[in-house]
Amino acid sequence: MTAAEKQTLAAFLDTASDYLRDCRARDRPPFPFTDDLMRGGAPPLGRTPLLRKGMLRPTPPSGGEPPATPPGPLPPEVTGPLHDAAAAVEGCRACGLARTRTRSVPGEGIVPPLVLVVGEAPGAEEDASGRPFVGPAGCLLDDMLAAIGLSRLRNCFIANVVKCRPPNNRLPTQDETAACLPFLCRQIAALRPRVILAAGRVAAHNLLGIEETMGRLRGTLYPYRLPPAFAGGAPSTEIPLIATYHPSALLRDPGLKRPAFDDLKFLMAHLASLDPVYRAEAQPLINKYAAKDSRLAPLAE
Ligand code: SF4
User: What's the gap in Å between 93 CA and the centre of ligand 1?
Assistant: First the structure.
């Protein structure tokens, strides 16, 4: 695609996202897209850039409105396991949260994603809509991702460790996370993200098995390995994982925004070293941040 085509598509998708979230249009600076890099005539990377091809949407409640954009074709080896996991989440009653939820929230985004963002559990808005990270924390997450050239509509998939809302937004219990974690493992096995961003302690603890404060967890690139039971018999490859604060924590304590932004730039540097298409598209942002961040300086033009 050309940069102009991408910009047009992104503007349409952003408008659709705003409408689906709360019917309130948001001002966004134009993202500095570039024309696709061609490699021997092949399309750039394997990511799916279109919403209709990539979105895994939650099933609407019976009698409700159908999704605005129906899911399009995706490789069966991806769609099968992903939709199986989403369907299993919809009907799951493996823990007590099934009794109090309005809707389960499997997750949504681009398939396969450059980044899989993993949060804690749905809140009130997510429970009502069946979509992850909507409401104020979701808006902030979208802004955080946009700051480094990422979006759930272009290159990210967003999910939670626990798929149903704990009452009164309490932390999920160990029994609840243990019951629900296999769904996330199934999603990771199908999605094969290039990087996982663990948003908040619950996500980081459950993915890494490390009980530490976020202050100690952040700033490190961890290797995440799928449990063998979910690796389909193949040797489990490592997926890089970066931990940062949950957007809800940033809303409670704005003082955490600066370290969270540092984490995002850390993620940006790693993605730029992994993925030339991301690097080309994010180059203007890299140049902008490089003067104040030594990790990005070598990547700047
Ligand atoms: S939280 Fe997870 S394990 Fe519990 S009922 Fe919902 S989908 Fe099932």
Answer: 6
**Contact at 8 Å (CB) between 164 and 122?**
yes
Q: Where along the chain do its domains lie?
A: 52-299
Whether the CB of 180 sits within 6 Å of ligand 1: yes
Closest CA to 133 of 153, 112, 111: 153
Three-class SS string for 167-219? HHHCCCCHHHHHHHHHHHHHHHHHHCCCEEEEECHHHHHHHHCCCCCHHHHCC
Q: What is the DSSP letter of 115?
A: E
| Assigned CATH topology for domain 52-299 | Uracil-DNA Glycosylase, subunit E (3.40.470)
Q: Is the dihedral of CA 264, 189, 275, 1 positive or negative?
A: negative
| Global pTM exceeds 0.85 | no
Chain Cα centroid distance, residue 245: 14
Contact 110, 54 (CB under 8 A): yes
pLDDT at 82: 86
Question: Whose Cα sits closest to atom 2 in ligand 1?
Answer: 180
What distance in angstroms lies between residue 92's CA and the mean position of ligand 1's atoms? Answer: 6
Contacts of 282 (CB under 8 A, 6+ apart): 148, 149, 268, 271, 272
Chain-centre distance for alpha carbon 205: 17
Mean pLDDT of 83-104: 94
Query: How are beta strands 156-160 and 108-109 bridged, if at all?
Result: antiparallel
d(CA 225, CA 231): 9
Ligand 1 pocket test target in 92, 126, 206 with most atoms within 8 Å of CB: 92
pLDDT digits (tens, 9 = 90+) for 159-184: 999 999 999 999 999 999 999 999 99
User: pLDDT tens digits for 266-301?
Assistant: 999 999 999 999 999 999 999 999 988 988 999 987
